[in-house]
Automatic annotation (TrEMBL):
<dbReference type="InterPro" id="IPR037923">
    <property type="entry name" value="HTH-like"/>
</dbReference>
<dbReference type="GO" id="GO:0043565">
    <property type="term" value="F:sequence-specific DNA binding"/>
</dbReference>
<dbReference type="InterPro" id="IPR020449">
    <property type="entry name" value="Tscrpt_reg_AraC-type_HTH"/>
</dbReference>
<dbReference type="InterPro" id="IPR018062">
    <property type="entry name" value="HTH_AraC-typ_CS"/>
</dbReference>
<keyword id="KW-0805">Transcription regulation</keyword>
<dbReference type="InterPro" id="IPR003313">
    <property type="entry name" value="AraC-bd"/>
</dbReference>
<feature type="domain" description="HTH araC/xylS-type">
    <location>
        <begin position="190"/>
        <end position="288"/>
    </location>
</feature>
<dbReference type="Pfam" id="PF02311">
    <property type="entry name" value="AraC_binding"/>
</dbReference>
<protein>
    <submittedName>
        <fullName>Transcriptional regulator AraC family</fullName>
    </submittedName>
</protein>
<dbReference type="Pfam" id="PF12833">
    <property type="entry name" value="HTH_18"/>
</dbReference>
<keyword id="KW-0238">DNA-binding</keyword>
<dbReference type="GO" id="GO:0003700">
    <property type="term" value="F:DNA-binding transcription factor activity"/>
</dbReference>
<keyword id="KW-0804">Transcription</keyword>
<dbReference type="InterPro" id="IPR009057">
    <property type="entry name" value="Homeodomain-like_sf"/>
</dbReference>
<dbReference type="InterPro" id="IPR014710">
    <property type="entry name" value="RmlC-like_jellyroll"/>
</dbReference>
<dbReference type="InterPro" id="IPR018060">
    <property type="entry name" value="HTH_AraC"/>
</dbReference>
Length: 291
């Protein structure tokens, strides 16, 4: 099953692996919230991943078997009925048990809203939790997987809606203690993000943003760190590189012109930032993701 936007892979007759994934999308591309991948896998004994950073928010629900997780120097034994979460910047390693390898369903997603919403749950601090008595995580992930497997023409707006409902449910069921949603701070943050999205190609964006919104640079820095776990400059660079990725895929414009169009006055600076974010040069990215 395949479309211009995503594809589904079934690896074998036993359905040990079944994966739905967006095509040609990287975590560095700009988005408020987007589903990147969802799938089910019955792992082989000792199957492992990492140690590395996923670059996406990733959540697993374990149907059966067991395994282990190491994330940011913390170790967990995980068994059936448990949920484990890896944030986009977490350094993680996980491994299926050699005798009773796990079978799990997982989801990968990304975007600025993903970071904000997850920070209102206890999962970024605890990493591993039991599913709720009503099986919320299990049922929700299976519903999303069923939606993408059943309808090859499902649109991304429907999927994003399902993802918002799922993340909202996580906030309700796994709330971070003593944390209240500060609507004023979130309003400021939304306004700051909108400013970057509209003015990312201009020079001195952060200074202009502080002046335009009448906020101190220190307060802006605190908001981005608290809710997005990045600095304003890191977010700006990520958004610029995301726009550059789109231009590289969708146009034949010269790389130097793309660099200037997304806010880099020097092509060399653009090359360094692009390689740092994507692990590829702009030319390599264009060739790999040619439409």
């Amino acid at each position: 099953m395949q479309t211009d936007d995503y594809y589904v892979r079934n690896y074998n007759r036993n359905n040990d692996v079944c994966v739905w994934k967006q095509k040609n999308v990287g975590y560095y591309e700009s988005s408020e919230l987007s589903l990147f991948e969802i799938g089910v896998e019955k792992c082989t004994p000792g199957f492992d991943w990492g140690p590395d950073r996923k670059g996406f928010h990733m959540l697993h629900y374990v149907f059966s078997g067991k395994g282990s997780l190491m994330v940011n120097d913390r170790y967990f034994d995980i068994s059936a009925g448990q949920v484990f979460y890896i944030a986009s910047n977490d350094f993680a390693y996980y491994k299926a048990d050699a005798e009773m390898p796990w079978k799990y369903i997982w989801i990968r997603y990304f975007g600025t809203k993903a970071s904000i919403i997850m920070n209102f749950t206890s999962l970024p601090d605890r990493f591993v939790m039991n599913d709720t008595a009503d099986g919320f995580v299990n049922c929700s992930l299976n519903a999303i997987l069923k939606a993408v497997m059943k309808d090859s023409s499902v649109n991304m707006y429907s999927l994003t809606g399902l993802l918002y409902c799922f993340l909202g449910g996580l906030v309700d069921r796994f709330p971070k203690k003593d944390t209240q949603i500060d609507s004023t701070a979130l309003g400021y943050l939304d306004a700051l993000i909108d400013y970057i999205h509209l003015n990312y190609a201009k020079p001195n964006v952060i200074t202009g943003m502080a002046h335009d919104r009448n906020l101190s640079r220190s307060y802006i820095y605190k908001l981005f760190r608290q809710y997005l776990d990045v600095s304003p400059s890191e977010y700006l660079d990520g958004f610029r590189i995301g726009r550059a990725c789109s231009y590289l895929k969708e146009t034949n414009a010269a790389i130097s012109d793309i660099a200037h169009s997304v806010g880099y006055s020097e092509t060399a600076s653009f090359f360094r930032a692009f390689k740092r974010k994507t692990g590829m040069t702009p030319h390599e990215y264009r060739v790999k993701n040619a439409i």
